[in-house]
Amino acid sequence: MVDKTLHTLGARSTHLHVASLGAVGLCIGLWIRAKTVDQEERGNAERRALFVGLWPPTLWLIGDTLQRWEHRHPRLRRH
C-alpha cells in the first residue's frame, strides 16, 4: 500500500537509493564538521550526525520495496 502510494507520488526506487547514498555523505560531512566546532557545541553536532546516520538504511529499504513493486507491476512503471 505504501509502495503504491509512493510510486503514485512519483518516487522511484532509484531516487531513494540515491537519497540513501546522499545521506551517507551528509552524515560524514556533519561528523567532520562536528570535529571543528568548540567543545560546548560538539555533543550536539555529533548527535546530529548520528541522527542523520540512521536515514540511509531506512531510505535504502524503502527503495528496495519500491523496486520489488516496480518489478511486479512493469505496466505501471513510468520513467
How are the elements arranged and paired?
Blueprint: H1 2-8, H2 13-34, H3 39-53, H4 55-72
Helix pairs in contact: 1-4, 2-3, 2-4
Distance between the amino and carboxyl termini: 20 Å
Our count of helices gives: 4
Strand content: under 5%
* Quaternary organisation of the protein chains: single chain
Instruction: Tell me the helix content.
Output: over 70%
Number of domains: 1
Largest sheet: none
* Total count of strands: 0
Helix and strand content put the structural class at mainly alpha
**Element order: H for helix, E for strand:** HHHH
Low-confidence stretches at least 5 residues in length (pLDDT < 50)? none
How large, in whole angstroms, is the Cα Rg? Answer: 17 Å
Mass-distribution shape = rod-shaped
Question: Mean of residue pLDDT?
Answer: 89
